[in-house]
Amino acid sequence: MSSPPRQTVLCLASFFKGNRFFQRLYEEGCYVILITSDRFKDEDWARQYLHEFHSVASFEDRAALLHGVAWLFRDRRIDRIVALDDFDVEVAAALREHFRLPGLGDSAARFFRDKLAMRVKANELGIHCPRFTPVFHHPEVSRFLEEVPAPWLIKPRGEASAVGIQKLRSADEAWAAIHALGDRQSFHVLEQMIPGELYHVDSLVQDGKIAFVEVGRYGRPLLEVAHEGGIYVTRTVRRDSKEARALIQANAAVLEGFGLRRGASHTEFILGREDGLPYFIETSARVGGANISEMVEAATGVNLWSEWAKLEVEGEGYAYTPPRTREEFGGVIISLARDEDPDTRAFDDPEIVERLKKKNHVGFVVRSPRQERVEELLAAYLERISRDFHASLPAPAKSTS
Questions:
Q1: Hey, which residues does 166 pair with through a beta bridge?
Q2: Would you identify the CATH topology of the domain 196-388?
Q3: Where in the chain is the domain with CATH 3.30.470.20?
Q4: What is the dihedral of CA 37, 41, 45, 49, to 10 degrees?
Q5: Angle at 120 (CA atoms; ends 114, 121), nearest 5 degrees
Q6: pTM for the whole thing?
Q7: Where are the beta strands (DSSP E) in 219-350?
Q8: Which residues of the chain have pLDDT under 70?
C-alpha cells in the first residue's frame, strides 16, 4: 500500500519553466499539479514528475481560474499554491486569499509585482531608489519633470524585466508618452534614470532571512537589449568585492523589509556611477530567468528551482542549509541567431557547461574557478557571436527574465 502524499502543491506557470521545481517536489513525496496556459501546453514539461497537468485559455480570466481551482479542490486537499513566473504572483495571491492558504496574500504580493508599491515601500524603509512619481495627478508629474533632471523612464507597474519601458529625454516627450497611454496612465510609474551598472542579486529565503545569495552583473542594460537588440550577457561578481558586499546588504534590507518569508527572489540594483550607491530597481518572488539559475548552479552547485521547492515543502521553522558545493564563477551569453538551428560545435571550450536549445537563438553557460577566465570567454564569444550568428531584434519581445 502506497503512503499518502506529503503535500499537494498546485503550481501556476503561465510560461514554460519550473521542471526542476516539479522534480524536487515529486522526489520529496508531494502530489504535484500544474496549471499552465494553452499557449505553452505542448512544451517539454517534465510530465514524469507531474501527477496532474491542466491548461487554461488565459491566466487573465481570474474568475475562470478560481472556479477551476475550486473544482480541483472538491476532490483534492491543496496545501500550497506556488507562482513560478512574475505574471502569476498576483493570481496565486488571490487564490491563496480565497482558499485561505499560506504564502503571499494580495497586499504582500504587491511588493513583488507592482513597481510603484516597491518604490513606496523602499522609501519607507530608507532604501535608495531612483526618484519617482506615480502618473496620477498631472500637477505632481509636472513638478517632477521640472525638478528631476532628464532622462527619465516610464514603466508599466505590473510588467517584468524591460517590457513596456520607454526612455524619455524631454518634458514634451514625456507628456506625449503619458497622453498616449490614455486610461492606462495610472498603471505606470515615472522615474529618474540613474547612470550606472546594472546588477542582479539572486536569493533563497527561509523564515524571513537570506539563506543563500549570489550577485551577478549584466553586460548591456536589459532596456537596451530588449528595445534596441543586442547580446545578453551576465556573470558572477567576485564575492569578496566591495560591490558584492553592498548589494548583498541592500538585498537583505529589501527582502526582509518587504516581508518575503520563504522562497526564491531575483532583485535588481543599479550601482550609481557618480556616488557608487546601490539604487533599488525591482524585486520578485521567483527564480530569475534568462539562464541565471543555470549560471548560479554552475558557479555554486545550488539549483535555485530545486531548493525553492524544498523550502516550500518544509515550511516555517525548517533549519535550512543550502547544498553549496563550489565557489567558482559563472557566465551567460545569449543572442538571437539568423539560423533556426545554429551550429555551435566550433565553441568547444571545456568551460561550457550548457548550450541554449531554442530556435533562432545561440547561447552558452560557462564556469571556471577563475573570474578572469569567465570574462575572457564572454568577451571572445561576444565578438564571435556578433560576427557569425547575431540577428537584429525585429520588435520588442515579451520577456520574463
A1: 154
A2: D-amino Acid Aminotransferase; Chain A, domain 1 (3.30.470)
A3: 196-388
A4: 80
A5: 90
A6: 0.91
A7: 232-236, 262-272, 278-282, 329-336
A8: 1-2, 160-162, 221-229, 392-401
